[in-house]
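User: Can you help me understand a structure? I only have the sequence.
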Amino acid sequence: MSSHAKERGKEGDQEMERERNSKRERERERERGRERERERKRERERERERERERERERERERERERERESKKVRESKSEGERERERERERERERERESEREREREKEGESERERGRERERKREGREREREREREREREREREGKR
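Assistant: Let's start by predicting it. Here is the structure, written out as tokens:
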């Protein structure tokens, strides 16, 4: 084999070696890109979780604020105003309860459970009405004195 042929063979080998190296490098680059993408995805998920946590914290803070407000308001009112406030609070509680009820229905709670819940609510309303009538009778007795 002439030295010229050997030289060409060596160049060919080097060329193949360079191609293999560059192929490996491209593969490593793609893998690094995929890894960066996975990392960005994990980071976005962590960010969403932090955002949900901040939202829950804001909601808790709003709830505490409403509590402080209603406490301040309760402390500064006459009996009649407090009674009306309690009535509005009961109304809001009924609203929240019916909202929770809609949520539970969405979650597909069993009909039997909803029936028991309605029964308990009805009994609660009857007790509430009875207490209301009792307070009414009490006010009338107070008025007659």
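Now, to help you interpret it: The helical segments are 3-75, 79-106, 111-144. Residues 23 and 29 are 10 Å apart (CA to CA). Let me know which part you'd like to focus on.
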